[in-house]
Design goal:
Porin, 16-stranded antiparallel sheet
Length: 267
């Protein structure tokens, strides 16, 4: 889960010299390559619901994050602090450590491997929650006619299963308002074979989800931006099955409209 660089790299050049035996100047030495640009982005954020892949994990929450960017590398920490309607046994707070690196593979196409380490320090296994899961991912970004398409695959090594997603994004400039309108849409499906800790036989969880949303970003200053967002997301066909028992519907897979307000500060 957006990044801008704020510092210009220094460009080192070497001057040309004249030879006493020639009338033409020697060729200038090639300029040294620019160092990768770097920045930090701190983003305090509030969300009206905590929804994850179509499943409601809580009510209103404070969700601050901080990210470090250097060239094509991005690493950061996203967190969630429930304000209301906390799910019993779920961690308060949650810290997710993530990273990614972008490779240019062709014109308008990038390959982005990444990872997320989800941590729930106060989660209770007795309530069916893990304290930690690890999920590498691989995305392919392709841009055509202003549309950005991103197929992405995740695999969680603790929950033991993949998540497949396809996202699309489109931006409409609003020059009269000195802003833009950023549209996004995502469809996904997941299947985990070890969804609940410390039970035998294992619990399987699978389901589908989608989300559509829009964000209004407003540039407040050179290094800060206010973002107003609204997203509708819904989970469906989400079930839990333990061993040979009959499958049970996951009642937390619901449809909700999520409003968000964030303030990104770059330095």
């Amino acid at each position: 889960m957006k990044k801008t660089a704020l510092l210009l790299a220094a460009l080192l050049t070497t001057g040309a010299s004249l030879s006493a035996d020639t009338t033409a100047p020697a060729a200038a030495a090639p300029a040294a390559p620019a160092a990768p640009s770097t920045s930090w982005v701190f983003t305090p954020s509030f969300a009206s619901q905590y929804m994850f892949r179509g499943v409601r994990l809580g009510g209103p929450a404070f969700e601050p994050s901080i990210e470090y960017d250097q060239g094509n590398l991005a690493v950061g920490v996203w967190s969630n602090f429930p304000i209301k309607d906390k799910v019993v046994g779920q961690s308060d707070p949650e810290f997710d450590f993530y990273g990614s690196y972008s490779f240019d593979v062709a014109k308008d196409t990038t390959l982005v491997p990444g990872y997320t380490l989800y941590t729930y320090p106060n989660a209770k296994k007795s309530n069916g929650f893990y304290k930690l899961t690890f999920e590498p991912n691989l995305a392919l970004n392709y841009t055509i006619s202003g549309w950005k398409f991103t197929p992405k695959i995740y695999y969680d090594f603790v929950l033991k299963g993949p998540t497949l997603e396809l996202s699309a994004a489109y931006t409409i400039p609003l020059p009269d308002l000195k802003t833009e309108l950023d549209f996004t849409g995502t469809v996904g499906t997941l299947i985990w074979t070890d969804a609940i800790p410390d039970i035998s036989p294992k619990a399987k969880n699978w389901g589908d989800y989608y989300a559509v949303g829009a964000v209004f970003p407003f540039q407040v200053s050179t290094g800060s931006k206010l973002n107003l967002g609204v997203t509708y997301t819904k989970g469906s066909n989400n079930f839990i099955k333990v061993g040979s028992d009959h499958r049970m519907e996951n009642t937390a897979a619901v449809g909700r409209c999520v409003f968000s307000l964030s303030y990104a500060i770059s330095f």
